[in-house]
Amino acid sequence: MLHPVSRHGLTCINLPFIRFTLRVPRFVSSGTLGLYSLPITPKNIHVKKVGTLTLPRGVTLSDAQKKTIYALSTPPGRAGVGVIRVSGPDALTVWRAVVKPSKSLRDNTPEPWKLYRCRICHPEKEEVLDDGLAVFFKSPSSFTTEDVLELHIHSGRAIISSVLAALSSLPFCRPAEPGEFTRRAFEGGRLDLTQVEGLKDLIDAETESQRRMALDAARGAKRTQFEHLRTEIIQCLAMVEALIDFGEGEDIEEGVFEQARMRAIKLNGMIKGHLNDRRRGEIIRSGIRLAIFGPPNAGKSSLLNFLAQREAAIVTPVPGTTRDILELSLDIGGLPVIVADTAGVRATDDLVENIGIERARNIVEASDISLCVLSLPDILTVTSGRPSMHTPLTLKTLFKPDTCFLLNKSDLLATAVSENDIRQLLGNKAWVTSLSTGQGTSEFLKGLSEVLQDRYDLGDDNSSQTSLITHARHRTHLESASRFIDAFLEYSTQDVVLGAEELRYAAQAVGKISGLIDTEDVLDALFRDFCIGK
Predict the structure, then answer these.
(1) Which residues does the UniProt record annotate as the domain G (predicted)?
(2) pLDDT by residue (tens digit) across 250-289?
(3) How many other CB atoms are found less than 10 A from the CB of residue 47?
(4) What is the pTM of this model?
C-alpha cells in the first residue's frame, strides 16, 4: 500500500521494505512513474540526479523548478572581457561541468573568492570554447546571497553565444529574467528597495550629479534615513501603546501622551521638510527640463546647436522654420538637462505654426527652468545714452520670476551697450552674446551652469545635501505617513486607541519605501526595468 505525502510542492512516496524515499513531482500519480504509466515496484524504479534534485528518469525540470540562473552581465559586442554570471544552488555543479582550471583542484572544488585561469568547455561535447578566468563566490557572502559563479571570457559574439548555449544544455539551469540577480539579493536581505533603486540609477547615470546621488543610495545612506524615520514613529507608537496597556497609573510616568505628541510634531516637521524640497532629487534623477523660447529668428535653434556641439536643429533666416518641439539630453555643469527648442512665439495666421506655438507655451509653463532668447538689435533702443528694451507682448505672459535671458546678435548692434546696463533691465540672469561669432558664449555657459548648480546641485557634502526623495513612490509614501501623523495629532488622550492606529499606519507607509512592507506589483515593476544580467 502506497502512502503519498505532499511536502514542498513534491509528493514523497514511501515504499514498504525499502529504506529510501522516492521524490517525484506532483503531476506523477501514486500508481505511475513519469509519462510511461509504469507500475511502481522496487524492480523498475530508476532515478537520476539533476543538479541538486533527484528525479525519476524521463522527467525534466520546469523553469519554475530550475533555481540556478545565468546571464551575460556585460554589454554585448566586441570587447576585451565579457562576464557571464551564474547564481543558484547548482553554481558549483556548473563549475565542475564547464570550468577546467589550469591547476588541478581537489574534487574540482575551487577556493571561494579566488580567480582561476581556466578553459571553458562544453559540458557534453567537452569542446574548449574559450580560455579565460573563473571565480566562485560562496553563499551567503555573494551579491545574491547564493552560490555565484562568474566566467570572465573574451567578449566576442561567437564566444558569448557558445558559452551561453553550453550553459543552456545543463538541465538544471535557465536564463535569468530582467533584474533577477538583484531581486534575489533583495529577497536574501542583501539590499533594500532604496538600494535596489540606487543601483539601477547608478547603472543609468549619465552625469556626475546623477552618479553621486545614485551611489549615495546604493551604499545605503537613504536606507539609514528612512529607517530612522520609521524607528522614530515606532517609538512614538510604543509610548502610546504603553498607555493603552497600563493606563495612567503608577507604572507609567505622567505626560507620556504629551511626550509622544511632541515627538510626533518634531518628526512630522522633518518629513514635511523633505517633502518641501521642490522635487530636487527627482528632477536631478530624471533630468532638469530647460525650455528655450522667444520670437522667431532670435537664435533659439542656433543656441541648441551650440549647446549640443552639433547641427541638431535646422537654422534658416525664414521665420517659422521650427514648428515642433526638439529635445536633447545634455550635460551642463555636471547636471542632466533636457533642453527643448520651441517654435518662435508670434502672432500668425498659419494653422500649423499656431499649433507649434501653443505647444511651445505648454512646454515653457511645464519646464523646470526657462531661457528666453531675444535678438538684441530688435528690442534695444538707446535714448540720450540710456538703453531701454521693448519686449514683445506675446512673450511677457511666459516670463517667470526665475526666467533667464540670452540677448543674441550683439555683433549687429550699432551702439555698444555694457552687460551691466542689460542686467539692470533684466536682472542677473541675463547674458549678452553673439552665437554666430562666439562672443560671450563662454560667459553665458558658465553663468547658466552656476544658475543650475545653485538651484539643483548636490553640493560637496553628500550626506547633508542629497535629497532624500528621488522617486515618485518615496514622495507618495512620505505624504501618506505625514497625513497619518497629522491624524494622530488630532486625537486626545480619550481616543488613544485610534491615535495608536494612525501611528501604526504611518510606520507602515515609511516601511513600504525600503521594502520592509512590500507589495508584489511594486516589486515586479521595479525589477523588470533592470537589464538581463543584473
Answers:
(1) 290-375
(2) 455 567 888 889 999 999 999 999 999 888 889 888 889 9
(3) 15
(4) 0.72
